[in-house]
Amino acid sequence: MKQLKNKLQLLFVVLISGFGYIVSCTHDNSFPPPQAPSGFVPTRGTNIHTPGSMTAGNINEWKLDKVHSSALWSTSYVAASGLLTGRFNQFGMHDVTTPKMLNYVTNGQPLLDSSWAFYEADPTKTYFNGYVQINTSNTGEPGRDAGCNVAGMGTTPIVAGTQNLTVTNLAKIQTTKVEYDLLSNDYIVTLNLTWQGKLAAPLTTSIVGKLKYVPKANVNGTYDVFGLQLKFQFNCRDYGITSTSIADKIDIECNMNFHNK
After folding, report:
1. Alpha-carbon span 241 to 233, nearest angstrom
2. Residue-wise pLDDT tens digits, 162-213
3. Which fold has domain 64-259?
4. Where are the domains of the chain?
């Protein structure tokens, strides 16, 4: 009888321990929303930046400083441990609707960089549209840029003096939601990426990225500047890119600088 009692006690302990383990595991996998670090206090200001008509000399109208901005990409080189990197030489901040998907005979910006607004204290009012010309991908290796990159990404070679914003040469982003990042002074951005790649028609996918605001500062008492840095990642296989030389995931970093000259 004593032996039976001991066995029952042992079974009871095992059951209680097992129940505790199950409860603890269930709690650990509930994935609660991220919380701000202890003691974290946001230091966001109230700056508002909009392009207006982009009138030169109007200090209340902000202009994209393309010369000092960049649209960068990077991905793993599948056969090695290093990265493949590059940039797009031609890009802008405009909502390129279907009627505007044309070849523009110009060496400058084909469309005004005016499709954006930034509200530091109210991200619900912040939005931006952007685009890159795929055939201007620049790795620093001309043979690759004008060769396998053009063919591999389903576009056409550069034509001198022409800005190619046609559907097969255009990748676009458009924000659908901007909100505070609870873990930093940055912002979480949900955006649509539209690109045809090597598909028969453009595809739009929803992506989440991170936006950093570089606050307004004055330059030598003459004009003001500020910056927006956007980072996101997408899967190039979604867009029909089959090259075995690159990984599935492509990292994009957009560094946009503005001035009010």
Report:
1. 15
2. 999 999 999 999 999 999 999 999 999 999 999 999 999 999 999 999 999 9
3. Lipocalin (2.40.128)
4. 64-259
